[in-house]
């Protein structure tokens, strides 16, 4: 239903909504110039600088009667290409990955909210299961893999060019 907001595959920090180190999004990290794209058609609700999010864009989406809001944070200074009220198309470049605001290195902090974003982030969900699957990857030949201590579904999915959804089925 949503496309990944970047071609970067490395996730430096995953979603965790419990515990002392809560993180209500997914951080895609890689050096270089990495385009950030709208994950779905929508309307820009915020395009601003925040002390915590840095250069930030929020987009409201209406999909199958459900409202979603996506957050794209820590963009490169001066790279935001959209303003409040703009309509965006899925895949449209909206900025460049950066390290602005409360950030310790270049990455995209991406959040998905079922409903509208709020300061408590009570509508935040793990975005990974919402990303569209690559049909080529899901129909590839079956392979067997023995899981080792420390393996993650994400690492295995990247290694074998498949998706977490396929591995979990």
Automatic annotation (TrEMBL):
GO molecular function: metalloendopeptidase activity
InterPro entries: Cell_wall_metabolism_enzyme, Dup_hybrid_motif, LysM, LysM_dom_sf, M23ase_b-sheet_dom
Positions of the LysM domain: 143-169
Pfam name, any one: LysM
Lineage top rank: taxon: Bacteria
Record-given protein name: Peptidoglycan DD-metalloendopeptidase family protein
Organism: Niallia alba
């Amino acid at each position: 239903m949503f496309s990944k907001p970047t071609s970067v595959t490395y996730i430096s920090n995953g979603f965790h909504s419990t515990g002392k180190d809560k993180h209500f999004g997914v951080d895609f990290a890689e050096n270089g110039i990495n385009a950030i794209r709208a994950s779905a058609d929508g309307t820009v609700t915020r395009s601003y600088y925040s002390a915590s999010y840095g250069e930030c864009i929020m987009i409201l989406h209406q999909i199958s009667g459900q409202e979603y809001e996506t957050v794209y944070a820590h963009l490169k200074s001066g790279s935001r290409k959209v303003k409040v009220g703009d309509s965006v198309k899925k895949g449209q470049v909206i900025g460049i990955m950066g390290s602005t605001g409360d950030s310790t290195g270049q990455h995209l902090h991406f959040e998905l909210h079922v409903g509208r974003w709020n300061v408590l982030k009570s509508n935040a969900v793990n975005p990974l299961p919402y990303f569209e699957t690559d049909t080529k990857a899901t129909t590839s030949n079956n392979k067997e893999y023995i899981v080792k201590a420390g393996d993650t579904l994400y690492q295995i999915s990247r290694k074998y060019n498949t998706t977490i959804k396929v591995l979990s089925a």
